[in-house]
Amino acid sequence: MVIRYTVLIKALLLCLSSAELQAQQVPTLEELLQQPTATDPTLIEVSTSARHAQSAGKSAQVTYIITDEEIRRFSLRNLIEILSLFPGLYVSSDTSYGYLSARGIGRPGDYNARVLLLVDGTRVNDNIYDAGMIGNNFYIDPQLIDRVEYSPGSGSALYGNNAFLGVVNVITKRGNKLQGGQLALAANQRDQIDLSMSYGLRHASGHEGWVSLSRSQQDDIAFADINPPEPVLSQQTLNNDLNHKLAASYRYRRLQLQMAGVARTRQEPVVLAEDPGRSDIFKITNRNYFISLQHGLSLSDKSELYTHLSTNGFDLTTFTPFIFPTGELRRYHFDVTGRWTNLDLRLSYQPGPSHHLLFGVDGQHDQHQSYQFSIDDVIPVLGVSSNNNRIGLYLQHGWQFTDNHKFISGFRYDYTEQNVREFSPKLGWIWQLTDLQSVRLSYGTAFRAPNEYEQKSNLYNELPVPASELIDTLEVNWQAQLADDWSVSATFYHSQVRNLITGNYGESAIVQFFNDRAVEAYGIETTAAKTWQSGAKLQLSASSQRARYKNDQMELTNSPEHLFKTQYSQPLWRDDLHINWHMFATSARTSRLGQMPGYARHDLLLSWQYNPKLHIVLGLKNVFDKTYVDAPLPSAAALRQPRRTAELSVNWNFF
To answer: What CATH number is associated with residue 575?
Structure first.
């Protein structure tokens, strides 16, 4: 650990000495292009809610945005920390995976399958669990992210499966923001070091691209159990997580080629169930990748054809130690393999200034879906292999029938070979009350079909396959620009959920799944933001959300009823030095084994833009060392969340 921090300090001194030579230079065109843009939420261009680029103020669906400036200033080191800033989202961790709850709904054991996760529009939920990985094993490092868009609510009318509670789209940076060589280095006192190197190039002819290599390692991870078993305490140094990533992007005019891959090894000491006095290593190896090709073709001044082709891979192996009846140590091997290809064709047609039509067809070919359960990869226990084809047709029409009123309508029909037939309509209305105020009203439906794991587990248990989950959501939003540069927003929503798929986690290693009781969810999400002439920025969000079973009004587990979030950034005695404060507060949550108390945690960071090429952040996360727990797993065990951590991060453009 001492050696690592010595290397980090030397690298920081090298950055400072090199950057000092450039400190007095006049900014170049590239440096000017890298400056942050205006952050008026109604003016930022978004593409997630309508599946085509438009200003956020013209979108029928609310879209929240986290920018690269916020990611850098608050030293957000993975997608978990980025998503935690969005209104209505609640994240937790078991030190191996991150778990996401949206608008009060987050099922134990669910790997974020009810939120569609995109990278520049490429679907990256896998085809076995529909899982969206949001931890250190996410494809894109934070320093490569230009912004993250989150569109809450039902999104199946455009996106189909998994857009159940919302859509998250991670937008990567263009060549003008990654010009030259980039070094990103971050470390904390808990033996976590993240190192990323990238090189970007933008040519006047229109060619641009970047490539990035990164490594993230954390050793000696503190056990999440409140009272870790005695046999594993002496093996904490073996509790580690290692991630290697490769990502690249190439653009030429309307053409984009992108790829990303992650290789992960996670190991953790565990107690052997057959002999609680002994322990051994539980291990996860994970390999994910995607390659995508996107192209926009202008057919005329009124129409454009958009093509998006991607291919993805997902490989997961877990090694679980146990004692064989004969006494020797053996390991259960659980091997999962997924391969799939997506094709999306969209035609955008605007016959006049008052109308916009979007026609689309997308399909997914699951060319390989399999998982095998064996002992030492020799004695077979269970083996399943299959494939599937899915197709969806959708249409959306935007009609500006007066200067102040716009109507959006659309629908989508999804069909799969596994007997899924779903129709998803959408209606929206935007009323521009004044130049500074607007009201949005929308209604939409969404679905989540049972994934491969849920289907095959039930077939193995000779049980019927669960029906698709369905949700109907009605919401109204008010946005306004008030005096003194305040911007405010309030969203009221009401959702009806049917056929919620739930696992019956019992003694059997093969889980049984069933459709749970109907659920009603409703709430309000409010935001407020202000920027002062001094450069200070304040963002507030408060969410009140209730998700209850309709028949008995029991609340869903691990779903906080109240969330409050604050981000504040203030220049100190110089414009390039900022103090940044983030506060997150939540009410109590209920687990299957009892109630977990609410808490408030604070992060305090000092960010220094030494010059246009060097940015340094030093801070404390969970400043007051607040101890709090969550229960994201089916076992409902209370797991301790991250304690106070001192962090240092450096972003250096060395060309």
So the answer is: 2.40.170.20
Domain around 602: 39-173+180-653
DSSP state, residue 456: H
Beta carbons within 8 Å of 103's beta carbon, 6+ residues apart: 88, 152, 165, 166, 493, 495, 521, 523, 545, 547
Q: Is residue 648 part of a domain?
A: yes
- At 590, the amino acid letter reads T
Q: Could you list the beta-strand ranges (E) of 353-404.
A: 355-375, 379-402
DSSP structural state of residue 233: H
In a domain, 9, yes or no: no
List, for residues 585-601, the tens digit of each pLDDT value.
999 988 888 889 999 99
Q: Which residues contact 21 (CB under 8 A, 6 or more apart)?
A: none
Length of the chain: 655
The DSSP output letter for 628 is -
Share of the chain above pLDDT 70, in %: 90
Q: pLDDT tens digit string along 229-271?
A: 888 888 899 999 999 999 999 999 899 999 999 999 999 999 9
| Model confidence pLDDT, tens digit, residues 627-639 | 999 988 888 888 9
Question: Contact at 8 Å (CB) between 48 and 149?
Answer: yes
**Global pTM value:** 0.91
Distance, CA of 115 to CA of 469 (rounded, Å): 13
Measured distance CA(307)–CA(296) in Å, rounded: 6
> Strand, coil or helix: what is 431?
strand
**4 assigned to some structural domain:** no
Question: What phi and psi values does residue 59 have, to the nearest 5 degrees?
Answer: -85, 135
For residue 590, give every residue at least 6 positions away whose Cβ sits within 8 Å of its Cβ, in sequence order, or none: 555, 557, 558, 559, 596
453 φ/ψ angles, rounded to the nearest 5 degrees:
-65, -45
pLDDT of residue 155: 87
Cβ atoms 201, 176 nearer than 8 A: no
Look up residue 621 and give its amino acid.
K
**Residue 300 Cα distances to 303, 305, 348, 351, 356, angstroms:** 5, 10, 11, 11, 14
3-state secondary structure 281-310: EEEEEEEEEEEEEEEEEECCCCEEEEEEEE
Number of domains making up the chain: 1
- How many Å from the N-terminal Cα to the C-terminal Cα in the chain? 30
